[in-house]
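DEPOSITED CHAIN:
***
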Amino acid sequence: MRNFALTLGTAALMSVGQATFAQDDMTNIDAAYSEDGRYYTEEDIPTFNITEDGTIDWLTYSGFRRYHSECHVCHGPEGEGSSYAPALKNSAIEMDYYDFVDVVVNGRQRINAAENSVMPAFGDNPNVMCYLDDIYVYLKARGVEAVPRGRPGAKEAKSDVIREDENACLG
């Protein structure tokens, strides 16, 4: 239910204090605890988990699938960026989680003499919003090269809670 509540409660998320994490600050990366197949940092920010044998958590695997379904056309394969849009694997590390959510939900325009960048809003797209944390943790894993390019191999099973949350979100 946590993922469902996070994606539907975006307005509430935007009111939370903003924190900036340096790329070398692993508190934005390391899993401190898990809940129903989801992993979180000490600050309750979604993150990935990879076991010693290379098995990835379900959300990271799902994020790979969702990213390649909705995001890679502009942002390039595996979050590497393109001539059209920036590398999201970097954004997931460098941006605050709530800023990342805000940009995906509301879009962003930067039009000036130096750049012409338009990110459309995906707040009404259930194929993005119901899997926003999945996409985010996949990109974080790519950003620190914890997950290599290409389709991830071994993955954890999807938990019943994640399945229920997906069904509730998608209707």
